[in-house]
Amino acid sequence: xxxxxxxxxxxxxxxxxxxxxxxxxxxxxxxxxxxxxxxxxxxxxxxxxxxxxxxxxxxxxxxxxxxxxxxxxxxxxxxxxxxxxxxxxxxxxxxxxxxxxxxxxxxxxxxxxxxxxxxxxxxxxxxxxxxxxxxxxxxxxxxxxxxxxxxxxxxxxxxxxxxxxxxxxxxxxxxxxxxxxxxxxxxxxxxxxxxxxxxxxxxxxxxxxxxxxxxxxxxxxxxxx
Length: 225
Ligand code: MN
Ligand code: MN
Fold this sequence. Notes:
There is one protein chain. The protein has 225 residues and is of the alpha+beta class. It contains five helices and nine strands; from the N terminus they run ββββαβαββαββαα. It has helices spanning 85-90, 102-121, 163-166, 195-202, 212-218; strands at 8-11, 16-20, 25-33, 71-74, 97-100, 124-139, 144-158, 172-179, 192-193. A hairpin with a 4-residue loop joins β2 (16-20) and β3. The longest helix has 20 residues, at 102-121. The termini are far apart. The structure holds manganese (II) ion (2 copies).
């Protein structure tokens, strides 16, 4: 809905997102990770503007983060979409990016991304949502907001079908909130919180297709595996 420029839903074959025109990036990006997305396609590295944004909206350019000190941080990772060139290339749209400091993006964030693919290799499928929260400042002449922290929530299910109906109070969830800072450690486990805590800072209701009774349990505890 173009009349909601700061909560503009974009559904792509590879992931979905809520876009904020004024922040020049996603409020959240959501994707499914299972073996059907994983192959041997190399990283395409074709960072580019998303030309599917509504007419007249600023399109964040591939070069807009240059010189800022911030990485073009994928939400849906390149390595989660390696089944085809088209699938991998889709992750390089700038609507899938948030400015992340290297210590966040290349360290702790990348480690959780890698762990997620390990879970898939062990027979699981994942539902993942991530984004940024809080405002540090703007880069790119005011076009791109830099968040104070990045967050991610994950549902872990054994690979199967009818996924929503298989979520129970025993289902594993993982949630993290990580400072977008240069002085953080690389252990994602040290940044774990409950899903409820991420809901509290973002205002989003994750897993809303799951019954409220089950949500209360799986969102209220902190992963310890
Ligand atoms: Mn990254
Ligand atoms: Mn919820």
